[in-house]
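Weekly modeling sync, notes
Attendees: S.R. (lead), two postdocs, one rotation student

Agenda item 3: backlog of single-chain predictions. S.R. asked that every request posted to the team notebook include the full sequence so nobody has to chase files. The rotation student volunteered to paste the first one in as an example of the format we agreed on. Action items at the bottom.

Example entry:
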Amino acid sequence: MKGIPSDQVIKGVQQEGPLLAVLRDILQTKEARHVLGTMVPEVVRIWAGRSPFKRMIIRPVGKSIRKGLSQSEDGKPADVQLLLDVLPRVIGGVFGSLRSVSETLEKMTVEDKEGLLGTFLSGLGDGRTGELLTIYARVINEIHKKDPEFLARFLGPGFRRWVEKTDFGELRDFMDNSSRDIIALVKMVNDVMWAYPAKVVMVLSFLPDIVNFLVLFLEESTHRFNQNSPDLIADILLSLFREIDGQTLGRCINELAELLRKVHTGSALIGEPGAPQFPHDLSRFLEDALSVIDGKILGKARIALAEDKEAVKNALIDASKNDSYQLLYPLRHYGAIKNPRIRSARYQMEALEELPDEEMAEAAGQGFSDTDVQDMAEIVNLMALLANRIRDLKPDLFSTLAVQFVDTLDLYILRDALDGVVGDMAAAFRPLGRVIVPRLVNGLCDVLSPEDDEYEEDAAAARERLRSLLMGEEVLS
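Predicted structure, as returned to the notebook:
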C-alpha cells in the first residue's frame, strides 16, 4: 500500500471552515508530521493488541501512515533516531503550530475569529483541568496518609543528582563573565526601544491599566469579603492567624538574631584591633557611591521631595474641606487615638513596678551606667563651639531670627491665651506647684550661694539683681 501524501489529507480539509483551516496549517508543519508519524502507528498497534487478524490488517496501514507523515521535505525516509528526538520535535511542533495558527487567525473574519477562540476558551473552561488537579491531589493525599514524606523521598535523589551534576563554580564564572554582556544587552534593548519613542510611551501606558486592575481586584475582593457578618470575618481571619506556628516563628527569630550576632562578632575578629571590618567595608562602599553622586542634584531632589510631601498634605486638607467631619476627625477623636498608647505605657510601668526591687535596680543600674554620657557632653560642647563660630561669622543671625519670630507673634493674643489658660488651671495645679516650685527655688538658691570658684563673680551679680528685684530697687545694668 502506498503512503498517503500529507498534501492530499490537507486538501480534504481546506474548505471545511476555520477550525479545519487551523488544523490544516498545523499538519503542514514538518514537526507535526514527524510527531504524528511516530504516534499514530503506536496508537494503531495498541488498538490491534494481541489479535493476529488485527495485526495482519493494520501492519500495512501503519507503515503507510508512517511513510506519508514522516516523509521529509527531500523525500528521504525518517530516521530511527526520531523516537529519541520526539520531545524536541513536540516542542518545535507546538511553536510551529502556534505560528501557523496565528497566521491563519489573522486572515479570518471577525466572526470566524470569535467562533474559533470561543470554542478554544470554552474547552479550557470545561472543568477537566480542575478534575485532573483534583484527582492528582486526591492521589497524593492518599499516599501522604501512608507515606507523609513521599515527595521528599522520591524527589530527593533526583535533586541530589542535580546538585551533584551542577557545577556552581561554572555558574559563578558565568555570572562574573556576563556582567559586561548584561550591560551591553541592557543598552541594546534601550537603544532599540528608544529608536521608537512612541512604542516606549505605549509600553509605559500599560502601567496605569495594571495598577487600576490590581486596585479593582482588591476593591472587589474586599467588598465581597465585607458582605459577611463581623463575627464570621473575625473568625476567618483569626483562624488563619491561629494556624501560624508561633514556636517555629520564634525559633526563626532566634536563628536570625544569632546570625546577626555572629556577623557582628566576626566583623570584630577579622578586622584590625579596635576596628571591626564591617564599618570599614561600609565606609568604602559609601565612598565609592558618593564619589559619583551629584550632591547638588541630590539636595535639589530632597527639597523637591519635601515640597511634594507638603503638596500632598495640602491636597488632602483641601479635599477634606468639603467634609467637616473628616477634617475635624483628628481633633474630635484625639483622645481616642492617643488613649491606647497611654494605656499601653501605663501597663508597661505597672509590669515593671511588679518586678523585684533587686532585679529592677540591677537592670536600671546597668542600663544607665552603659549610657555614654561623655559623648553626650561632647555633643553639647560641639554644639556650643559651632554656635560660637556661627556668631563670629554671622553676629546678627540668631538675634535676627529671634526678632523675626517675636515680631510675627501677636503678643496681645498670646497674653490673653496665657491669662486664660493659666487662670483656668492655676487652682487645679496649685497643689502641684506647691510641691515643685519650692524645690526649684531651693535648688536655685543652692546654685547661687557663694562659692570660691571661677563662676563666683557671675553668681554674685545674679544674687544682687535678685535681691534688688525682691526689694523693689532698680538696678542699673
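Discussion: group reviewed the output briefly. The chain has a mean pLDDT of 82.
Action items: rotation student to repeat for the remaining queue; S.R. to check formatting next week.
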